[in-house]
Each structure stands twice: as C-alpha cells, then as structure tokens.
Amino acid sequence: MSTPSPVNRETHELPSSGGKSYPPIEMWRFGEPGARPKAYIQAGLHADELPGMLVLRRLREALEEKAARGEILGEIVLVPVCNPIGLSQTKGGYLVGRVDEATDRNFNRGYPDLCALVQEKVSGKLGDDADENVRIIRKAMRKKVAAIEPADAYETMQKALFLESCDSDIVLDVHADNEAQLHLYTGTVNWPDAKDLAAELDARAVLLSDESGGEPFDESNGHAWVKLGAAFPDKPILQACLSATVELRSNNSVSAEDARRDASALLRFLTRRGLVAGEEGAVPRLLCDAHPLRAMQQLRSPAEGLIVYKARLGDTVRTGDVLAEIVPPLGGEPSEVLAETDGVLFARHDQRWAWEGKVIGKVAGREVLEARKGKLLTD
Ligand SMILES: [Zn+2]
C-alpha cells in the first residue's frame, strides 16, 4: 500500500473594509511543499464568472482521490474561490464581481511587475546555469512579494494569491466570458507549449499577446520571465512559467456535465505535465489555431439600442459580414455591426442592449488589425 500524498487546506484572512467583513481565502495544497513542477490554479477572480468554481471543486475531489493513493508527484495549489470580496458584492438581485466596488478597480488588473521587483536583487547572482538561475529568481520573487505591504482588503487578496502563484511552473487563472465558446489567453512565448492545454479543454480560440495591458494576473506571472530575459541578455533565462487565462464559456453557464469534462481535461493536463501519476492518453486534436490578440476584433456598437445578432457563436465569418444590428426601439434605421476580419465569432454579450462603444462580441481573426493598440483587453 502506497503512502498517501499530503493535502493541506489553508486559509488566508482578509481585513474588513468599509464596515464589510469577508470570509477567508481557502487554498488546497496537494503534494509536498516545494515539490516540482508546481501548478497554481484559481477560479472566480472575476467573481461573477461562475463555471470555474465548480470545475475546481470537481478537480479538488479528483486530486483528493489521487492523493489518497499517493499519486501526487509535484505540488498543486487550488483556489476554487479566489475572490471572496467580489463574491460579496450584489446589486439588484445580481452578483456583481468584476470590479471592486470600494475602489472601482478591476479585480484582474494591477498585479505587480515581478521583473521590476527582483531585477536589482538577482543582478550579480545569475550565472551560466539556466536551472540555477530559475531557482535564484523564484526565491527572490517570493521574498519580494512577501514583503509587499497591502493597504486594504483588495491588496491583501492580491498579495495572498500572487505570493502563491509567483514561483509556479504553471499558472491557470480560470474565468468565463459573457456568452462565449471556451478560449484561452496566453503569452506569445507560451505557444505552442500550451497547445496540449488548449486541446484538452477543447478551446475554440487561442489569443496570444506579449503585453495585453493593465497587468492581468496570468500575464504578471508568465511575462515576468520574458522581461527578465530581456533585462539579462547575456544570461540563460528560461521561460519558467506557463501562464494562461482560461475562459470557460459563458459566465452563467454552470453545468455538472461541463464541470466534469473540464476537470477531467485539467487532470489529464496535470498528468501529462508530470504533477500527477497516471495515464493521460494522447493529446486530442485542437480545433482552432492560435492567433495574435491584436488580430482579435472587438465588435463595438456604433449606437444605442437593442442588439439583434445575425451570427451565432462559433460561426466562421468574413470581412463585411453583418454580425449584429443595433435596433432603436422607438423607430429609425438600425445600424449594422460588421466583421472587419475573417475569423470566428467566439464571444457575444449576454445583455442585448448596447450603447455607443460597447463591446458586443469578439472575432478571432488571423491578421493583426492596425486599430488594435494599447490596452487589448476589455475593461
Ligand atoms: Zn474574467
């Protein structure tokens, strides 16, 4: 009989703010602390993007079975509800979890620049051994993040999550879109390394960028290594973190079937990556290609009115196709929203009311669009 792998349930308290108190953040740690590879997976950073929380509950149950059989080989940290602050915000009968209502900050922006944090500390310590450099840099990252002094509940939460993710080999931040097919955002440097993740999850779009703007969680972890490579061009610096934002279809689409399938996909991925013992099987066929985030058209409404979509999720569209009409309910000509690229319509908005400039859909195109500059994500 094999010895069970350790499983630890840890809690991180959050301070109360503005008279509101919050439940602590709960983390499950599987495997020996310090074992490699290390994966960090969280859900609910945008607290109203719901399906990931059920997926991580399922994954936690599967990993507990693996742990009981002594089959955890690396270290896995799961945070099924990573944002108790967002989860406490309700308005008009709805959970409103994208933006911190106390400070108006998007919960998935403003994570620390790890490269800037450690650059001075590691300068002079790095040598010609790439693996040793990774160890030195990770140790410095943990130390620097641990020293951050948070000013409020929002920053305390950011720090608790980031401290655990910053030295990981794999970081997955699980979100969902308004109404969407499953898609991934990841660094250009992580492709095609992340292809097995995309294929296991049956992604229908993969968007690549170096810097999407605003320091989202996944990018702040993974892109630090690209920046360190540029900061120390004469030292071997590996891309030591595969980070991705996983967009699990639609915010409100929570189903037992999807959760089971997605949790199994993540378990096979973790098995293939050597964190869990077992048979992962062959990598399934990926049904999309990866394209630059700058080739993704954000469909913007030209006017106020009702959104009447003329294309379905997953439709292949061509430049000039009418993807939606914006219809003024009191009369007058509808305005058209056109595809400006050839690609796949992989996201729409679930609330069919638009105003000028509102993003009402996303098309994964192949060719970079000149207009896509600056901040590439929707705030
Ligand atoms: Zn999100």
From TrEMBL:
The keyword Hydrolase applies. Its cofactor is Zn(2+). Residues 37-270 form the Succinylglutamate desuccinylase/Aspartoacylase catalytic domain. One of its GO terms (molecular function) is metal ion binding. The keyword Zinc applies. InterPro entries: AstE_AspA_cat (IPR055438), N-alpha-Ac-DABA_deacetylase (IPR053138). Coiled coil: none annotated. Keywords: Hydrolase, Metal-binding, Zinc. This is Succinylglutamate desuccinylase/aspartoacylase family protein. It comes from Parvularcula mediterranea.
